[in-house]
Amino acid sequence: MLCEQCQTEISKGMKTCFVVSPIGEPDSETRTNADKLLEDIIRPVCVSFGIEPMRVDSAFSRHSITDTIMDLLESSDLIIADITGNNPNVFFEIGYCMALGSPLVLITSSYAEIPFDIKVMPIILYDMSTVTKRKESIEAIKRRVEGYLSGEIKSNRVLRESDIASEREILSMFEIVDD
Hints:
This protein is of the alpha/beta class. The chain has seven helices and five strands. It has helices at residues 4-11, 29-48, 65-75, 88-100, 116-119, 131-150, 161-178, and strands at residues 15-20, 51-55, 78-82, 104-108, 123-125. The chain is globular. The relative contact order is 0.13.
C-alpha cells in the first residue's frame, strides 16, 4: 500500500512521475544532489505537464521499500531515471520499467562510464551549474516527455535481433503479396 499522498494523487486521476535516482543518506552529497535535481529540474518539467513527481523517500508505505518501488514503477504514468553514478538499484528499476514498457526518460550529469547496453538508449545530459544550463536541461527533458504524451514515442525498448528477423519476415510477406 502506497502512502496516503501517493494514493490520493493516483485516485484523483492526477498523472504521476516516479523519479528514480540515487538518494543517499540524509545530509549526504548524494542526497543534496538528488534533492537539487528533483526541485530544480524534474519538478519544473513535471509541473509544466500537470504531472506530480514522486520519489520513494517521500512515498511512505507499510510495505518494504522494494514493494513500494515496484508499486510506484507499475502505477506511475512516467518514470524519470538519473543514471549518474551507475547506481545498481537505479539500473534494476530501469530494467523493470523496460520490461513493463513504461515511458522512461533517462538522464545523467555525465556521459562518462555509461554501460554499453544503456548507451544505445536516448539519454539526456543535464547540468545544474547555472540558471541557463538548468533551463536548457529542463527544455531537453520536456521534449522527451512531450514525445511520450503525444504518442510520438511509444517505448524505450531496443530492438533485439529476433525482432529484426521478425520484421524482415513480415516485410518479405508483403513482397510476396505484392507480386
